[in-house]
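Data availability (excerpt). The following record was deposited with the supplementary files.
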Amino acid sequence: MKNNKAAMEMSVGTIVTIVLLMSVLVLGLMLTKNIFKSANGAIDLTDSELNEEIGKLFDSDDTQGVAIYPKAKEITLKMGEDGSFGVGIKNIADSIDASTEFGYVVVADGNTCGLSDTVSESLIVLGSVDEFSIPIGKTQVGEVTFKIKEGIPECIFRYNINVHRAGVDGDYESLILKVKVKA
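Predicted structure:
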């Protein structure tokens, strides 16, 4: 009789443990999904939030002059959606004689679906070129916005952001735009 009672208590304990573990697993998956969804681009951020996110990226490395948000430098969009990258430029000059004029140009750098660079660049609706005057030690933030048009196939696009100072080429960063077909 004692063995049956002990077996029943062990079974109930096992079932309760399994239910609790499944609950934690589901909550963990939901949290992970929300984290990745929120870091999928700069389009949903206000200007001050975008400035804050770019500032955090610069805080982690004082020697860098360019920072991209999201940090993964990748966003995924579906047909008809739009999304953005934040582009931060920091004047890290150590001479007061250095120019404070900066800018960037976004250019297509290939894709996996064989589309021309002209078609790839036509997905950029705002911010493909920008110019700033940035005092030494300060940061300026721009935003590059993409919109996926009808007829664009599922594809991965690569873009380069060429940053220049007073007309002299400087650093460049690569961005990845993934286009998914609606499910």
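Summary of structural features: The longest helix spans residues 2-38.
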